[in-house]
Write a structure and sequence with these properties.
By secondary structure, the protein is mostly helical. It is built from five helices and two strands. It has one domain. It has a two-stranded antiparallel ribbon.
Length: 108
């Protein structure tokens, strides 16, 4: 049986580590929006490998539901408290973990 931690470890291994300005690592969590963590091409490569490793047919995953994704600019948090409004749904590790447990893509 596939676990959440196993899929989380997979994405932590496949995607580049993001850091703060002081080089403190920012680890991916189960509910981290992957669009804000990794570039689209790197995420695409990780999703293809996920398909191979977990046997989940990701051809059902329609990326149009998850892009475009607005990235928050660095100084925004000091300029406004208003959250950034996204026009697309977040794509998270939890979604991939639940789909791996089911053996098929569950979302969209």
């Amino acid at each position: 049986m596939v676990t959440n931690d196993e899929v989380l470890a997979f994405f932590r291994k496949e995607l580049s580590l993001m850091t703060t300005l002081t080089m403190k690592p920012i680890l991916i969590e189960l509910d981290t929006p992957l669009q804000s963590y990794a570039a689209a091409d790197e995420l695409g490569d990780a999703i293809e490998k996920y398909d191979e490793v977990y046997g989940v047919d990701v051809s059902e995953l329609d990326m149009a539901h998850y892009y475009p994704w607005k990235l928050e600019w660095f100084f925004r948090k000091w300029m406004t408290k208003e959250p950034l409004k996204q026009v697309s749904k977040p794509l998270t590790v939890r979604m991939f973990a639940e789909s791996a447990k089911a053996g098929r893509w569950l979302y969209d």
